[in-house]
Amino acid sequence: MSDFTKRRSMEFPRNVRLGHNAIEEVADLCRELQFGSSGLIVTGEETYKAAGKTVEDLASQRHDISTILTGNATKENLEEVKKAAAEHKASFLLAVGGGSKIDISKMAAKDLNIPFISIPTSVAHDGIASDRASLKSNNTSTSVNAVSPIAIIADTAVINEAPYRYLAAGCADVISNLTALEDWDLSNRITGEDLSSSSVIISRYAAEELISNCRNIKPGLEESVWFVMKPIIASGVSMLIAGSSRPTSGSEHMFSHALDVIRPDTALHGEQCGVGTIMMMKLHGGNWERIRDALKSIGAPTTAKELGFTDEEIIQALVKAKDMRKDRFTILGERGLTRAAAEKVAKTTGVI
What we know:
With about 350 residues, the chain is α/β, with parallel strands linked by helices. It has two domains: about 15-160, Rossmann fold; about 165-350, Up-down Bundle (Dehydroquinate synthase-like, alpha domain), CATH 1.20.1090. Helices cover about 50% and strands about 15% of the residues. α6 packs parallel to α9 and α7 (about 175-190) packs across α11.
């Protein structure tokens, strides 16, 4: 008799449409996925102009489509989206926008037990393919388990029209996988935490692919979006395999969350994680200069000044980071960094 009892479920996007004018395939994709007659587009005012109206026109050729304009991924906005879907009797959602619109759709799709398609208009982080969502409340973000998209439509022409800052932030978020993986491996060796080798391989591939192509990622070049999208999607898939954000979120994300508490809405999530990765890799004894140089080449921030924070706020965030996720063992340990240690690592890496 075997005492092996492990069992878990993994869901992945069934179809990914990536490239120039990929958005034009939305109606055909809905038909292939055998969606019901009614659908709801979840978007915002600016993202409706960028791509939502196009999706609305195309999807309406075969389906009864309604559209809701919403804001950040808050409980209030989530409830409004669910109410709109119920009133329209929607059998599927089309999430058109950045991270907040996709996150709301992930959570609504889970609660309503209906599928959704992820249609990003920008890629400031690696959440477009994962089942993790960030729920905002009182200037803080909580990571919650939702559902992964049944399909992804990533139109490189649409995404290229978004401010380049978002693309650079998305790259930084994926490059930050490198310290998340170091933290996971450390926890595996010290605490015995389970580690998924397959998700590690995919997460590392995503980060290394962006570093390898960092000189090809430039503002205004649609081909740059092409180089970025596959690693970003792969990073999300690594989370689906792991069943958590572990392969993509570690001490560098805890640093970012601490910055959000100290002064919210100052920099983008991916930008903060990128700077955190430089310092956390230094703590791990790894090649932090390589990460810094890749971020510089892409055009992502590498210093406190570029992030918009003071030196003192960076030090405070480093000290506070250990308290952001007490359930996750990282290089910060249980005691975290002293002020002196925080100041030293920030100065040594040139962050302050």
